[in-house]
Give the backbone structure.
Amino acid sequence: MQKRGNRAPSRRAVLKSTTGLTLSGAVAFLGGAARAVAGDGLTPVKLPPLLASSERESDKVPTPLPPEQRVGFAIVGLGHLALQQILPAFSESKLCRPVALVSGDGAKAANVAAQYGIAPKHVYDYQSYDRLAQDAAVSAVYVVLPNGLHAEYSIRAARAGKHVLCEKPMAISVNECERMIDASRAAHKKLMVAYRMQYEPYNREAIRMARAGELGKLKAFMASNGQAQGDPRQWRLRKALAGGGSLPDVGIYCLNAARYLSGEEPTEVSALVTSTPHDPRFVEVEEQVDFTLRFPSGFVASCTSSYGYHDSKCYRLMGTQGWLELDPAFPYAGQAMRIARKHAGSSGEDVETRKLEAKNQFALEMDHFAACIRDDKVPLTGGEEGLQDMRVIAAIYDSARRGHVVKLPRIEKVDALRGPALVDAAG
Ligand code: NAD
């Protein structure tokens, strides 16, 4: 669970305690969002510093939009992620609010709606889902269903005239991803894949360092994302609903990180798929995938995803001048960063631990999407980004099946499949 301690005071308290001191510029937040907030005539509040300049900066005062001006989201699927992470994250969002729910369980939906102040008329089931088209409170739909249902519910949402934020993996096939992109384009609505790591402060710092050349030329990347999966009856272990085993669920984080850290797209893939024989969890889907990706610059990523080993979610990025490590790298909170480089004044080496302010990754990602909707901007992690991961996943399975290297089309441009980079300090 996300740690919630040591948070800034509530928005209402913050606004009431305004001292009259204001920031001269817009509040530091995702670029588009900051402009949207400032454009709405809200005044960022600045509090006097409490600590000496030698100390770390304290939290910035948020500048949230009033509820009625926020982008209204319908949450589709009320399972673990929706109830434990996404709905609670709206309290830390500055631009979004939950206004509708979609669930097959009417009693659960009514209970959750009451908790979040959502009126019963905005609660839908999967049969009445298309009536979202007539619900003016809903601008965006957040699809949090099993992977095999992402395409259908994203396409229906686009046809209902809604913007779509879809959980990872985007879908379970390349064809489904392409149909989702087509549907959003045809409806002139935005589509974003919920790659929360690309909005998370430590991963953003790693991207910044890698791109700034602070590790020298990137040579290699090692990553693991694994956890021991339980009940063999769960949808994650059913091929039709999951699309695969550990690879599309957790291995996708390693794959996506290799791509966002380097900005490059792989040209060659080789892979091994392994499952413990007779384990009832791995009848339809795989347990472990070890895959290697070669990129145009010569950078090579070696990654492991697993449903069989104890929680291990880390990576190390190696360059000619140093390395950086995130361990853990991929959980909802608690990222830890180490950086190693030669010491400037001696023959020794410095290993630095870098600490950044923690942020709610789901609030950051949702606010980015809301800012793109409000400012008509291209999301950082749009449909093409999700489609590319699905193309590489298909190549990984293909390589494991055939037992040799599989080639992918060469893409020279850096960040070819992403929207414009986020412009300011994380969060
Ligand atoms: P979950 O099983 O807890 O929830 C899924 C919900 O879908 C349940 O409420 C279930 O009732 C509903 N559902 C509707 N139709 C269904 C059907 N035919 N079969 C099974 N369930 C059905 O799953 P979850 O962990 O919340 O994952 C949901 C999505 O979120 C997945 O795509 C997953 O990959 C993604 N996810 C992302 C992250 C992240 O960090 N971004 C973390 C966990 C899960």
Remarks:
- The longest helix spans residues 383-402.
- The pocket of nicotinamide-adenine-dinucleotide is lined by residues 77-82, 104, 144-147, 149, 167-168, 194, 196, 235, 241, 249 (CB under 6 Å).
- The radius of gyration is 22 Å.
- The mean pLDDT is 91.
